């Protein structure tokens, strides 16, 4: 494939080497050797193959790849080494000082040609019609060794395997293995397999799933996914694509390549799914996207991917996508397609009329955690500089605002402390309220590799997730706490550490406020926090909790990773503070392998927070009440900024029901499906006079919209995302926006339409780089961030400024941002949501690997093959009591509402706890969640809802009414009408 990679590197900047160097890079003392007369110095432990590649000499290979350890099975990479007998494999031979290597000789050429001849004799010679033609390593290596003829012929039965199943007197040939096309994204053709084991090794070493094996011997050797009864679809394969990427032939091949042909060019961009922020090469033919390949130099993913980023991009071309603006006077009318100027004039007139009638604070915006930093920045600027208020909120607050509050109060900054590479140095990993194998699978693969290398694992979760126990990985301790008792568990761990003298006194005296620590010690030492005294409350065995606390405190580098199972509680902020306390207690902060690390749910949750999407904070987490901060933006924006904080989403909805909030611009969020208490959200939206939805599809929120502005996908825009490790990654335009505009341009069109109404100065951005320049000029942590810097360095982690021009991979190395670290009391306060006779079970919610958030994107891809509907997980004990069998329809009811879905019986959840996802609008799982929220940030308490489960015959009356209303709301007038 001809590879024209964007970016074009500036003068003086070296582009990354995309060659496969055969074996991984090593770290060690320098060793000098000679390869084909060239002296080269490489680190100790480097293979001869990689050393040769560093000198520009590529040794032929088939089984070797630089993202896996050397295997030495293909024998194509043999070399000669002076002073040694034989011809060792260069991939498995480490360099030594003074070694003299020859990679070319008549003897080596004969050997390699003979090896390749054997491979080709057992391989179909259909290169001209093969999907991998021109992108096949076997083909390339045959050319490299000069193979022009094959003397051998495969056995008759193998020939049949390679070409077709021939029926004769004995029936179907016993050795024939059909092509496996069960996976929606790739095929497995055993006829083309050379049994190099690269796919098996990639599944083990890169992904960590161990789904593939080699079965049989000799000509009967073949790759097997799962058991003999399994296909790739039904096996443990998670469709991450590592095996497909590793395959040197067309044995494992993307169906998109089979259909569309070998791609000819590529653009480097960033995935728009979870907060890991994987870098990809979008490979194209013309402007037709053929495949997404994980970029080996991506600093977050290091060349790996998951099923969503690798394959689930088809929603960009889905038939449901809306490409023209639409308007309607009331939500009971059908939509009417219009041109952009009419849509903008309609929206601006409506919003202006509302402000004239109800006041300037009667309208607001919701920014998106899926959109770029630049787009999000403009949306919050719209409400502050054009609407004249601070009514801006985001799903980033709905999911992770306790992170900002808790870490801000204790450490002085609202973000995680480490980069993802740091996990490779961790000795003890604590995962609390997170399910990385499903929610952050690429990070989970790196974590599992570290666990297989000997790190210890503690999981604090009501549910037994895959990371607790899976292939070659098992947690030392699983603490299955009762939902809502996070604070009690974390404080009990601190109690053990303090009362048993396991805290790091030197670190605390040097780095933390000692007086605050003494006060904290008095609090946490109280016997009421002992594991034995909280066991009945939390459900966690005291002995396990004590042992887990001791392991974290004494096991070496301790790293904590947490997710929405921590933040989406009424005490979410308290739990984050408690986690920060644990890290300070043990000195596990400020170096590689430790830290406190929130796993962000969506691709730009961190960026949405950074860009000032909160009603009380301007970009950079600075309060709107501070005159000096407002002055910076008033000068940049040439306007006055309201010093009073605005409304959060729940407050907007409350005010709408009360009649004082009447207009909303909602970019890239589906609050009707994703926010709690669906009935209340619907009532608030229905009460508004102008709801503008800016999105790809007519989502559930659009049922109540008056204006629909079509959005652009991440493939159609330029900008940046900021991932969970504070890494600012470039998003590059792969194709032209199908709707005509990038999302930032749509926001600018709306702003200018409103400014025209008021006579204000128009916005004149022509490229997102100008928006980033404004961000850098007004936001200290982004002061050194420019597109030129990002092109040169690939990515940077904020803070990035004059003092740290290369960014900051590790936070709080020499001191906390706040100066001293602050210990804070973490008193457990039970949630107001309680179980009782009517609602005796506790519901907690989460995600599944195949889908993303509300599923608007992934439901419009073949990912539905794995998860076509939301399922309720229920313990067999609870199911038996209710007469529920596996696969039955059940009614899930709470004090807020009810819905129905199918049940699956599992011991993943303890008795008394049920679990479901929220990916499918037919279920609308959030109709049962309540409006309780975090005491400090108003973050909704999604993870604790008292419910009852009972047998059902199918959808509830409400579901049927909702479905009918949604269908009516999505009517679009045709041209004839």
From TrEMBL:
Any GO MF annotation of the entry: formate dehydrogenase (NAD+) activity
GO terms for cellular component: membrane; oxidoreductase complex
CDD domains: fer2 (cd00207), MopB_CT_Fdh-Nap-like (cd00508), MopB_Formate-Dh-H (cd02753)
Gene3D superfamilies in the cross-refs: 2.40.40.20, 3.10.20.740, 3.30.70.20, 3.40.50.740, ADC-like domains (2.20.25.90), Dimethylsulfoxide Reductase, domain 2 (3.40.228.10)
4Fe-4S His(Cys)3-ligated-type domain location: 107-146
Spans through the membrane: none
Domain 2Fe-2S ferredoxin-type: from-to ranges: 29-107
Domain named 4Fe-4S Mo/W bis-MGD-type: residues: 264-320
Biological process terms in GO annotation: formate metabolic process; respiratory electron transport chain
Matching InterPro entries: 2Fe-2S_ferredoxin-like_sf, 2Fe-2S_ferredoxin-type, 4Fe4S_Fe-S-bd, 4Fe4S_Fe_S_CS, Asp_de-COase-like_dom_sf, Formate_Dh-H_N, Formate_DH_asu, MoPterin_dinucl-bd_dom
Domain 4Fe-4S ferredoxin-type stretches: 184-215, 228-257
Compositionally biased intervals (Basic and acidic residues): 958-967
Keyword entries, A-Z: 2Fe-2S, 4Fe-4S, Iron, Iron-sulfur, Metal-binding, Oxidoreductase, Repeat
Location of the region described as Disordered in the Swiss-Prot/TrEMBL record: 1-22, 948-967
NCBIfam families reported in the protein's UniProt record: Fdh-alpha
Family statement: Belongs to the complex I 75 kDa subunit family. In the C-terminal section; belongs to the prokaryotic molybdopterin-containing oxidoreductase family.
Official protein name in the record: Formate dehydrogenase alpha subunit
